[in-house]
Amino acid sequence: MLFQLVMKHQANAKSDILSGLTVALALVPEAVAFAFIAGVHPLVGLYAAFMVGLITATFGGRPGMISGATGALAVVMVALVAQAERQFGDGAGLQYLLAAVVLMGIIQFSAGALKLGKFIRIVPHPVMLGFVNGLAIVIFLAQLPQLQSFTPEGKWGWAFGDWLTGMSMFWMAGLIALTMVITWGLPKITKAIPSALVAIVVCSLLVIGLDIDTKRVGDLASIAGGLPSFAVPMIDLNLETLMFIAPYSIIFAAIGLIESLLTLTVIDEMTETRGRGNKECMAQGAANIVTGFFGGMGGCAMIGQSMINVNAGGRGRLSGIAAALFLLSFILFASPLIEQIPIAALTGVMFMVVVGTFEWSSLRIMNRIPRHDAFVLVLVSGVTVFTDLAVAVVVGVIVAALVFAWEHAKHIRASTYTDENGWKIYELTGPLFFSAISDFKDLFDPKNDPKDVVIEFKNSRVCDHSALEAIDTIAERYNSAGKTIHLRHLSPECRKLLKRAGTLVEVNVLEDPNYKVAVDELA
């Protein structure tokens, strides 16, 4: 498969491989840190980054997108691990996590097979901007602990303590600044080699050559290990276990799919191409199923690493495959060398990712876009930072939908006139749905209207069951006043569902259109 990809994309093979190497170097501290957050061994995160990255790069719907262990999942996984440890004993946390990851993969694969990936289209642009800005802030905040000292209280031998001071902070800040300058400035001279890779190499040579006392990857944890091996999670296969892991798996699947599909959309815009959402869902699901059986903590698309890859020239599947294979080679063969890379260099690369990810234009347009869109943008960004991505996107979509409904409720109106028969005609304009019902009812005057009244729907549309109920209510009001109401241009479905009006209303059958109404009875 790899050979075929190289032959098919020879022109971009060099860029893909070099960008894959850059991504692999940036993946190491991220995967280790996310494993710590989840409360599992660092190799569990590294194996996840390798397997999820390899499978999604090979079979996914978005070439050039990078997947692996992510912080968005890790902050939820830690709750499962801790609860399993308390409920089932020491050592049970990892096994129940692996089982939950397998179930997560099954849910994701099913979502793709059922073509549910298309629903990412309902995410409004302000929510997209909030997602990108929120993740940029999260990536930035995730780097700040690297500016702190290590203490020995952590589960795996370390934890973050006080802020660095003196020469330690000087070297850390200086190397971060050097990395950012190289990453920013080198593309202005040449794009033959990814600037982030050059920055990492230069800082590493500087630190090793001058024996600078600064934090290195090896200070986080040893990344040395063997090949991941197949093993069925050691849990009791019963209903109790399923009920325990299912809620977590559903949350994992939702977070993974939302982050992956939104990242896919961002990469689509950057590369001016179009990925395949449903195929990506299925690839993410398959990757997590495999990962759960091979000792990995699961994962999804990573916007930070995807940005590094695309900015470094990675466009094809080969870039993601190369990143995964390089990461595996680090684990198997090059751990002593990789552990000498200064944390500052990788932190500087991630800071540049933050600068490139954050939509700075959103700050300039705040006063030019509708206030409700600006509110949704800020809301999604804030919820992403303080809770998690899935909650933020769901909240953003709900708020945007409610605002949309409120704004369109104002569009229902009626022009009135009297025809040659003396009948009063209410000619409606605008959609009739749940939030427009109150204004719709206020349009009519049963007490003062003539004996025959026509409600003309040719410029309106009945959208839901609430609208049908409102029509019934108006019909009953006119009937109580001893008057007849005629409804024109209603679809057959509307007429069928006007139950309570019964014979109280007259419907013009000949001119009525045929369209569906969004109510449960028609599902």
UniProtKB/TrEMBL annotation:
Keyword Transmembrane helix annotated: yes
UniProt-listed InterPro entries: Membrane-Transporter-like, SLC26A/SulP_dom, STAS_dom, STAS_dom_sf
Location of this chain's protein in the cell: Membrane
Domain STAS residue range list: 413-523
Predominant location: membrane
Record keywords, A-Z: Membrane, Transmembrane, Transmembrane helix
Membrane topology, as annotated: Multi-pass membrane protein
Gene3D superfamilies in alphabetical order: STAS domain
Transmembrane spans: 66-84, 96-114, 126-144, 164-186, 193-212, 242-267, 318-337, 343-363, 375-406
SUPFAM superfamilies: SpoIIaa-like
Designated name of the protein: SulP family inorganic anion transporter
